[in-house]
Write a structure and sequence with these properties.
The chain has helices at 133-138, 155-158; strands at 2-7, 11-16, 19-25, 30-38, 49-61, 67-76, 87-88, 111-112, 114-123, 141-152, 182-192, 196-203, 215-221. With 225 residues, it is mainly β. The strands form three sheets. A nine-stranded antiparallel beta sheet has the order 1-4-5-6-9-10-11-12-13. The protein has a two-stranded antiparallel sheet with strand order 2-3. The two termini are 38 Å apart.
Length: 225
């Protein structure tokens, strides 16, 4: 069962049919509180657990200085649980950029029972573009981005991750983050033909893990007003 509350002031919405899409709030962050309750033997549930989460989201229009958007998340899971029920992150092994994810992280690379994360992007315009005539003429908008994750996995939860399957074959073992956070930073160009975006992204930490990408070029689309 999930109980969620959303607090916002000055938030605008775009309505299309039966769907409503948030355009963000500029004056104050949108705050979301979520509590998840798992009940053993209730509707087929195998575990009893609690999850607590809070997020802050804001789209700041800064006039000639550009536009900043950020999403700050935190979650705490006090119960010892198998890793599929813990917090796995929105990783990306493709080439389409996801603002809400970690685009140079592999699937199930990290699992945590407590974490804080930040997805951040700032788009330049106005006074900055006056110094770059070509970008101004083509109406292109440079931007910078960063995705940061800090968390940990308690030994009680790490011990529940199986090393082999039922046939004795070795399994991929997700790990909790170490002492340093996971960090990826990038830069790119948006508003390509009013819709396209190119992001160049660098992974700054946990670079020596097997099979990871430390640099990537990503494509995405976003209609920008």
């Amino acid at each position: 069962m999930i109980f969620e509350s959303r607090l916002s002031k000055g938030e605008s919405f775009f309505v299309l049919g039966n769907n409503r899409f948030s355009l963000g709030a500029t004056k104050l962050p949108i705050v979301s509180l979520r509590y998840s309750l798992g009940l053993k033997d209730f509707m087929g549930g195998d575990f009893q657990y609690h999850k607590f989460a809070i997020s802050f989201e804001q789209d700041l229009r800064l006039g000639v200085f550009g536009r900043t958007y950020y999403l700050l998340n935190a979650q705490y899971i006090p119960t010892a649980l198998p890793y599929p029920i813990l917090k796995a992150y929105l990783a990306n092994e493709g080439f389409f950029y996801n603002f809400y994810g970690f685009n140079l992280m592999n699937y199930l690379e990290f699992i945590n029972d407590r974490h804080i994360s930040l997805n951040y992007e700032h788009t330049f315009n106005g006074v900055w573009l006056s110094r770059l005539p070509l970008l101004k003429k083509l109406k292109l908008r440079p931007f910078v981005a960063s995705n940061v994750l800090y968390g940990s996995l308690r030994p009680a939860n790490q011990a529940l991750i199986p090393a082999t399957d039922t046939e004795g074959n070795a399994l991929l073992q997700p790990q909790g983050l170490g002492q340093e956070p996971y960090i990826e930073v990038g830069y790119g160009i948006s508003n390509i033909l009013r819709l396209g975006r190119i992001t160049l992204l660098h992974r700054l930490t946990y670079r020596d893990a097997p099979g990871v990408r430390n640099f990537g070029v990503f494509f995405s689309t976003r209609f920008e007003l």
